[in-house]
Design goal:
The chain is of the alpha/beta class. It contains nine helices and 15 strands. The protein has a nine-stranded mixed β-sheet with strand order 14-13-12-11-7-10-9-8-15. A six-stranded parallel β-sheet has the order 3-2-1-4-5-6, with helices on both faces. Helix 2 packs across helix 8, helix 4 runs parallel beside helix 5 and helix 7 packs across helix 9. It starts with 21 loop residues before the first helix and ends with a strand.
Length: 365
């Protein structure tokens, strides 16, 4: 049965094996560092425009290596960030990263269909793992990732940047403190018009579809606002561009979530329209966050008084996320966003797809 949880609660990895592989033993006994070396796996937009620049600002970690299948990118990054040849890997020789003491963390920034493979391989190499959202395509894949990291005694964090940022932390604290009373209704939307036609987001076999990508933000909005896990869902999905979003791939998804307390949430995500807000209705007032999940500029208003606004520049969110996660590793503390948190969202995503396909309410265990 679903249970209440607080936003800042973290879950320790469970099911840790009693024996270690040689690579994991080395990782567990190597000397402490002042800064952790991070290797980015996949050099697309997010790595290029956000993570790499953010790693130039981090205090607890730094860009130590890259993994790419494109020689031209490897050469460009080598020159731009002064990355030594021994820290540059391809997808074919990726497993050799196990013997590289410069690299402590592998950050998987690949299409969702590839997350499980590279998280598991990184764990077997004895490296801590950060994985971009969505965590994976199925709950089974998520669990395999969690199990692999636990077995090899390495940390696993999911790249939910909003958990680390002050506007989110402030509104969650306010809601938990009862600032607007009992939570009754949540509406959350996240979307933009994506003009691309051949990106992985438009390919079902690569983990495309809006519910996996933007949909995770609105599920987080509903779960963080209520402090609960949904117990049932109904959903609708459609596409206005069937030539781009083929074979039933969702361009727009809408879902209605039911929570144990009786609270309801209506969430919307889309690649066909611009929207970004979180609206929470309580028994004593309302909270409006808009934008809600942007890279910066978040603003909030409490109907019964007060504003939420902590300004910063891009890529502050990514810098803070990686610094927090690196600090947790160095201090042997649980991740703020462990693999279990990503798994919870993917279980809901799977239920939403089932509900949309069948037209029926789906229970979430």
């Amino acid at each position: 049965m679903a249970t209440r949880r607080t936003f800042l609660h973290t879950t320790a990895l469970t099911g840790i094996a009693t024996t270690l592989s040689p690579n994991s033993l080395w990782a567990a006994t190597r000397p402490a560092k002042d800064r952790l070396g991070v290797a980015l796996v996949g050099l697309g937009y997010y790595s290029t425009d956000l993570l790499a620049p953010a790693l130039q600002k981090t205090k607890n970690c730094y860009l130590a290596g890259i993994v790419t299948g494109t020689p031209e990118k490897a050469e460009k990054w080598k020159k731009q960030y002064n990355i030594p040849d021994k820290n540059i890997y391809t997808y074919q020789n990726f497993d050799q990263i196990a013997s590289n003491p410069d690299i402590d963390v592998v950050y998987v920034v690949l299409p969702p269909s590839m997350h499980e493979e590279y998280v598991v391989r990184a764990a077997k190499a004895g490296k801590h793992v950060w994985c971009e959202k969505p965590m994976a395509v199925t709950a089974k894949e998520c669990q395999n990732m969690i199990d692999a990291c636990a077995k090899n005694k390495v940390s696993l964090a999911i790249g939910y940047r909003l958990h680390h940022e002050p506007n989110t932390q402030e509104y969650v604290k306010g809601l938990r403190d009862g600032k607007i009373g009992k939570i009754l209704m949540v509406s959350c939307s996240a979307g933009y018009y994506d003009a691309r036609t051949t990106h992985w987001k438009q390919k079902k076999e690569m983990g495309g579809g809006v519910m996996y990508d933007m949909g995770v933000y609105v599920l987080q909005g509903a779960r963080l606002a209520t402090g609960e896990e949904p117990i049932a869902v109904t959903a609708q999905q459609y596409t206005a561009r069937p030539d781009v979003y083929k074979n039933g791939l969702d361009e727009t998804s809408m879902a209605q979530l039911i929570f144990p307390s009786g609270a309801r949430a209506a969430v919307q995500s889309s690649y066909g329209m611009n929207m970004n807000f979180l609206n929470v209705t309580g028994s004593k007032g309302t909270l409006m966050m808009e934008p809600y999940s942007a890279y910066n500029g978040q603003k909030g208003i409490w109907s019964n008084g007060g504003k939420i606004e902590h300004p910063y520049e891009v890529p502050w969110q990514q810098t803070k996320q990686m610094d927090d996660d690196a600090e947790a590793i160095m201090n042997k503390k649980p991740m703020l966003v462990p693999g279990e948190e990503g798994l919870r969202d993917i279980k809901i995503v799977e239920a939403i797809y089932q509900a949309a396909r069948t037209g029926r309410e789906v229970k979430i265990g």
